[in-house]
Specification:
alpha+beta; 4-stranded mixed sheet; two-stranded antiparallel sheet; 29% helix
């Protein structure tokens, strides 16, 4: 019984370490000198620290082709950070109405290249009151 309990505790510890490694890997991508294609990232990469229940943080990028860092959302040239934040923080309700959640934007980086370069940033959507 005691051995099984220790094995379960070890499994939980290993799962926690794996989650921390995934976050560290994303941070390494952000600061890396070599850039990684978003096609190599895991499905729907979310940077979600959510200290408030229902809060959601999304790394987004505006640019011509593939953002040089791992992102969850890519938008074409011509978008602004505010337009992206408004789009990703909009709730579409069953009755057809919409509501834009309060949000914040933290610019994380810029890289020149292709048609308009690349700007990536973290959009945090806050839950409705």
């Amino acid at each position: 019984m005691r051995t099984m309990l220790k094995a379960m505790q070890l499994a939980g510890l290993l799962a926690g370490l794996a989650a921390m490694t995934a976050v560290a890997s994303a941070d390494d991508l952000y600061s890396a000198k070599k850039f990684t294609s978003t096609s190599q990232t895991k499905e729907g990469y979310f940077v979600d620290a959510a200290p408030i229940p229902g809060q959601r943080a999304i790394r987004a990028c505006i640019g011509d082709k593939v953002c040089p860092v791992a992102v969850a959302a890519m938008f074409p040239c011509g978008y602004t950070e505010l337009q992206v934040a408004t789009e990703v923080c909009t709730l579409y309700k069953a009755d057809g109405s919409t509501a834009v959640l309060d949000h914040s934007i933290v610019h994380q980086g810029t890289h020149a290249g292709n048609k308009c370069g690349y700007d990536w940033f973290l959009v945090t959507c806050y839950p409705a009151n």
